[in-house]
Design brief:
The complex is a heterotrimer of chains A (375), B (392) and C (362). Chain A has 375 residues and is an alpha/beta fold. In chain A, 38% of the residues lie in helices and 21% in strands. In chain A, the strands form three sheets. In chain A, strands 8-7-9-10-11-13-14 form a seven-stranded mixed β-sheet, with helices on both faces. The radius of gyration of chain A is 20 Å and the shape is globular. Chain B has 392 residues and is mostly helical. Helix content of chain B is 67%, strand content 1%. In chain B, helix 3 crosses helix 14 and helix 13 crosses helix 14. Chain B starts with a helix and ends with a helix. In chain C, helix 1 crosses helix 8, helix 2 packs across helix 10 and helix 11 packs parallel to helix 13. A two-stranded antiparallel ribbon of chain C has the order 1-2. Chain C has one domain: ABC transporter involved in vitamin B12 uptake, BtuC, CATH 1.10.3470. With 362 residues, chain C is mainly α. The interface between B and C is large, with 54 and 63 residues.
């Protein structure tokens, strides 16, 4: 389906596949909730240029097979116009043939991204970028030795890549590179190895439970490095990770930020918060920080939709989207969305922030605004 | 324990009933002659011909999940074929020879990864300067797919036989756990790429983009469909050949390779190795077909969960039955898609469906015809029909 | 050196979980000949129950009361699973299953009829589609109860002589269903289970040992010893008799039904203890069972599936080897250790580690 005709509006179906159940459900539920909430909101406000939206969503349980099946179903059976916020990024490459075949644009947080695909627009900083920001922060606090603990999958590889990339920029030493198996709670060997290395800064790329255990392990040993994780794994803005360890252990924990903190006092975030508290649809029990993320992304999409001026063909979409670099979409809670032409231009947003958790106030505070990694 | 002994006793009795000729050499159960023996061949060929033309036949249009007119339906059917092909190999090992080799998921992964790596375009020749994550995901050795596929399958068969060799000394659960561990080890080795030898190009744990092979330029889905169907047909043929020889027919009666071969003076080890090799060939081919369908491979797809799904497919369909894996695969994929909308309840419903299926049909769906034939009221009907014929 | 000691302690802790799950598997296997793939998941349910009673939002019971009730729940749940699900396939009555199925289906059908009317394959008959009012739904559901009962009673055949595979698949189905239920009732957020000894550590020289580690290892040992004692007692001997030769045992008047219930109750209790200890010491999360069940089977195999001490030692060895190899060599090696151990041990000792081990054919 080559997009809609010029001037034809009506009901636009947007598709998304989320890990609504399964091991990424903690994030998946809220990721979906944020999207649905935004769609409900925009419809209640009268839509855009005479278009109202329907969100067609499927649960992929974070499995490749299910995700590719979902995308095919959404394209063939539900006949969606495009995809927004589709998560499960480790499996997204499986959907490339389907997406390229149908030409449906995909607008969302993907890490890592294949930047050669015309249809894909990455709206979030990659995990590697977030890792680099964490490390820049470590260095700014005087760290000279860095350790990395990652899962034995893409998260670990991306974290390590970040550490290696910034090594030549800042001149620190990587003293430990440890791995923890996915789904495993046996963190002791990795933790002990890092404690022994005595690193000043530790970058972790684990799931929430493992992060909590690592923090506990460090605390028990009386070892107090700076510890930072990417936004999802730190659960920055929420209690996903910090509730899993003793308050003293979680104090000072750092998380990269892809999106503003949920308790930020700004008009945009306050508006989101009011809507989220009233929201009663699927995913309402999810962690708020993820909801704000997809809410912000789809708002950017709506702004872009408005700029299409009634011409909803795919060519026009790409044409307008690729000029964003000259006139970025500014959503207050995320870095500017400035997509450009290929190659490389579909990495639309870059830059991340850093937040720190204080167990005294049981809240997160942003300590570094969105910025690009040092290079 | 008592159950085991009773079963063994039955098996020995069956074996004792195998006829022998005058000098005491056993005569194997004869092949069914005439049209009856060919019946199976005709039905099988018929079914596969229909499946081959399915993308163009309008018969399944009403069945959304398996509607071949959509990529969605075609993809689902292709997954069914891939699971069924792996299941046929699995059936050979477990259902037929009674050898509990559970390394299947690992060999499946080998097939998927192997074909993906070998047929991926050559890039990143200097791995260290290559842009991490993205380019290694697509880099490989640049072989043509149709060369990579048989090579990978044969290598997998050899590895399978290698796994089987010391495993021939193990029995029952020991064999099961040992092979299960070996299968998991294979998957773990795939993730250890960067530490072992980055020349493996498996991209460590981060997944590999599968270069899509287009059969006659017919598009990804149709190609995946036909490759999956081919894998099913070939493994099916291998299964039939393995099971229709003389030893195979004895095995059918006795269902345990130890007992069939021991007293008959044939090396059970040899047949076990062949079974391991053939089933691994099947698993690798099925894995390659699965990879063409999924377009992306990642070690997490091949964990024990996959083995569990394969076991479900096999046992649900019917262990040791020819059509078991295909039926089981259809049911499983259907259930998974049908209950998609239930999200959290999905696995609950699948679990309950599985339990019900096993309680009602412990021998699998493929045993339904036999169950019906053996059930009392069908036999009643038959008796009445016969007496009606006699009296008329 | 203290590092090695540290790793060993961590390994002993992890090993005690593997050992306990292995012990539960062996107890159930020894007495009822069922390879229970759902053992860890059943334990996880009990662990979540303990957590919910103690730390959960509404209920704030004292820790020990929660543990007591939770463990009791574990035992009862294990017995119930045996009573309803396993019995038909092991040659005993299928009546409880028929009753359970009839009533639960009837209950579920009320909602279904209210929302959807008849199932899709019937509702193309005009007039039969769509939802029904409560009264009609109730009548239809109640009518279905005896139908389902009769159906189940007739068609779920009491198999005297069933292979391990159907039983394995039954427990696989149970694993799926339980995992789903746990997610629905307890949510998918990992939880911290606070125990009275959480977070406290003491030092032996340079080595830090957490109280929770001591509790886990100690409880593991205690349970293993308790089981060994039990199996020498009157009931334990009966259990072993049923396992060795069921027919003779039954002739001697040993009630196989009661023994099976008891065995599954014990298995459930031990698995529940394992998952609760693990949850208290690390985190309580949905995926814990999936990883542990394989390690539990590995421990059981190392004990030859019959020897309790062998299973316990096997589990401990796996845990320690994992931790030490992960620490001394490389953390990337850690997940492979358990697998390597079982492969090497089995290839060297095809008949299992302990003298008592017999060849088990399937």
């Amino acid at each position: 389906m080559p997009g809609l005709e010029k001037g034809v509006g009506g009901t636009i179906k947007i598709g998304t596949s989320q890990p609504f159940t399964g091991r990424a459900a903690v994030a998946g539920e809220a990721l979906l909730g944020g999207l649905q909430m935004a769609v409900d909101e925009i419809n209640a406000a009268g839509g855009i240029d005479g278009c109202d939206f329907i969100l067609a969503w499927e649960d992929d349980r974070y499995e490749i097979e299910q995700m590719v099946t979902n995308v095919r179903k959404l394209i063939d059976v539900d006949k969606v116009w495009g995809f927004v916020g589709t998560a499960g990024s480790q499996a997204i490459p499986s959907t490339y043939p389907a997406i390229e075949g149908a030409g449906t644009p995909l607008w969302g947080p993907i890490s890592p991204a294949n930047q050669d695909i015309k249809e894909i627009y990455l709206t979030n900083p990659t995990r590697t970028e977030q890792g680099k920001i964490c490390i820049d922060y470590f260095v700014s606090q005087g760290a000279e030795t860095i350790a990395v603990i990652g899962q034995d999958n893409e998260m670990g590889v991306e974290a390590l890549a970040a550490a290696k990339a910034q090594e030549s920029v800042h001149g620190y030493e990587i003293v430990a590179e440890e791995e923890i198996e996915v789904l495993s709670d046996v963190v002791a060997p990795a933790v002990l190895a890092v404690i022994e290395s005595g690193a000043d800064g530790v970058l972790t790329a684990l799931d929430n439970a493992q992060n909590g255990l690592v923090l506990s392990g460090f605390h028990e040993a009386g070892y107090n490095p700076l510890v930072c994780s990417d936004a999802g794994s730190a659960g920055a803005g929420g209690i996903n990770t910090v509730s899993l360890t003793e308050p003293e252990a979680a104090d000072g924990y750092l998380g990269a930020l892809q999106v503003a903190l949920p308790d930020t006092d700004s008009e945009f975030v306050n508006n989101w918060r009011a809507g989220w508290e009233a929201y009663d649809g699927p995913g309402k029990d999810g962690a708020p920080n993820f909801s704000l993320q997809t809410y912000s992304i789809i708002q950017a999409f709506f702004v872009l939709w408005d700029r299409l001026d009634g011409n909803y063909t795919y060519e026009n979409f790409h044409a307008v989207a690729e000029t964003l670099v000259d006139d970025p979409i500014l959503i207050p809670s995320i870095p500017p969305i400035a997509c450009g032409p290929l190659p490389g231009g579909h990495q639309c947003a870059s830059g991340a922030g850093v937040a720190v958790y204080s167990s005294a106030t049981e809240s997160w505070t942003q300590v570094k605004a969105f910025e690009q990694p040092a290079s | 324990m008592a159950l085991l002994e009773k079963r063994n006793l039955e098996r020995y009795r069956t074996l004792a009933s195998v006829k022998t000729n005058s000098s005491g050499f056993p005569l194997y159960p004869p092949k069914a002659s005439g049209i009856k023996g060919q019946r199976r061949l005709i039905t099988s060929t018929g079914i596969f011909v229909i499946l081959a033309f399915l993308p163009w036949l309008p018969i399944l249009g009403w069945f959304t999940i398996f509607n071949p007119a959509t990529n969605y339906g075609l993809g689902n059917i292709a997954y069914v074929f891939a699971y069924a092909a792996a299941g046929v190999g699995f059936n050979l090992l477990i259902g037929y020879s009674g050898t509990l080799g559970l390394a299947h998921a690992g060999i499946f992964a080998l097939g998927a990864y192997g074909t993906a790596i070998l047929s991926a375009p050559q890039e990143c020749l200097d791995y260290d300067t290559c842009e991490t994550i993205i380019r290694p995901a697509v880099a490989g050795y640049g072989w043509p797919f149709l060369v990579a596929l048989p090579v990978v399958c044969i290598v997998a068969a050899l590895i399978g036989a290698l796994v089987g060799f010391p495993a021939a000394r193990l029995k029952g659960f020991y064999l099961a756990i040992a092979t299960l561990a070996l299968g998991e080890l294979i998957v773990k080795l795939i993730s250890l790429d960067a530490k072992l030898w980055s020349g493996l190009k498996t991209n460590s744990g981060t997944g590999k983009q599968v270069p899509i092979f287009e059969l006659f330029g017919s598009g990804q889905l149709k190609s995946a469909y036909f490759i999956s169907l081919a894998s099913l047909i070939i493994t099916f043929v291998a299964y039939v050949i393995y099971t229709e020889n003389r030893l195979g027919r004895t095995l059918k009666a006795v269902r345990d390779i130890e007992i069939a071969t021991g007293p008959l003076g044939i090396s059970g080890t040899y047949y076990k190795l062949v079974a391991f090799g053939l089933s691994s060939f099947a698993a690798a081919f099925a894995g390659a077909a699965w990879a063409q369908n999924s377009a992306f491979v990642n070690p997490t797809s091949f964990r024990t969960r996959l083995l569990v799904f394969l076991l479900v497919v096999l046992i649900l369909g019917g262990l040791g039955k020819l059509w078991g894996p295909l039926i089981g695969a259809f049911v499983f994929v259907y259930l998974r898609q049908e209950f998609q909308d239930q999200q959290k309840l999905l696995f609950f419903l699948i679990g309950v469906a599985l339990m019900l299926a096993i309680l009602l049909l412990p021998e699998g769906f493929a045993s339904l015809p036999d169950r019906m034939r053996d059930s009392r009221w069908v036999q009643d009907l038959r008796r009445r029909f016969k007496s009606a014929k006699v009296s008329s | 050196m203290s590092d090695l000691l540290q790793q060993i302690v961590a390994g002993l802790e992890a090993g005690s979980y593997y050992a306990l799950i292995g012990l539960a598997i062996v107890v159930v296997m020894k007495s009822t000949d069922v390879p229970n793939f759902a053992q860890a998941e059943m334990g996880l349910m009990a662990a979540y129950m303990c957590w919910w009673l103690a730390d959960g939002d509404e209920i704030g019971w004292p820790f020990w009361l929660a543990i007591l009730v939770g463990f009791a729940f574990a035992a009862v749940f294990g017995a119930l699973v045996q009573f309803f699900l396993i019995r038909p396939l092991t040659g005993l009555s299928n009546q409880p299953l028929a009753i359970l199925a009839a009533i639960s289906l009837g209950y579920a059908l009320i909602d279904l009829f209210q929302d959807n009317g008849l199932p899709f394959f019937i509702d193309w008959i005009p007039g039969l589609g769509g939802g029904y009012p409560l009264g009609v739904s109730l009548v239809l559901a109640i009518l279905s109860v005896p139908l389902v009962y009769i159906f189940m009673k007739k068609f779920v055949k009491k198999m005297d002589n069933v292979d391990h595979f159907p039983l394995l698949l039954l427990t696989i189905g149970l694993t799926f269903a339980l995992g789903s239920l746990i997610e629905i009732f307890f949510g998918n957020q990992p939880q911290k289970f606070n125990t009275p000894w959480s977070g406290n550590i003491f030092n032996i020289g340079d080595t830090r040992i957490g109280y929770d580690q001591v509790v886990s290892i100690g409880m593991g040992l205690a349970i293993a010893i308790g089981l060994a004692i039990f199996f020498r007692s009157k009931w334990g001997v009966r259990m072993r008799a049923i396992a060795e030769d069921g027919t003779t045992a039954r002739l001697l008047g040993i009630n196989a039904g009661v023994i099976s219930l008891l065995a599954w109750a014990i298995g459930g209790l031990v698995a529940g203890a394992a998952m609760t200890l693990k949850g208290g010491s690390t985190v309580l999360e949905l995926g814990s069972a999936e990883g542990l069940i394989l390690k539990g089977f590995i421990a059981a195999v190392l004990g030859g599936f019959v020897s309790l001490p062998g299973t316990f030692i096997g589990g401990m060895v796996v845990g320690v080897a994992e931790a030490v190899a992960g620490g001394q060599i490389s953390t990337s090696l850690q997940p492979t250790m358990a697998l390597l151990i079982v492969v090497i041990v089995l290839f060297l000792y095809p008949d299992g580690l302990t003298r008592e081990a017999k060849l088990r054919e399937v």
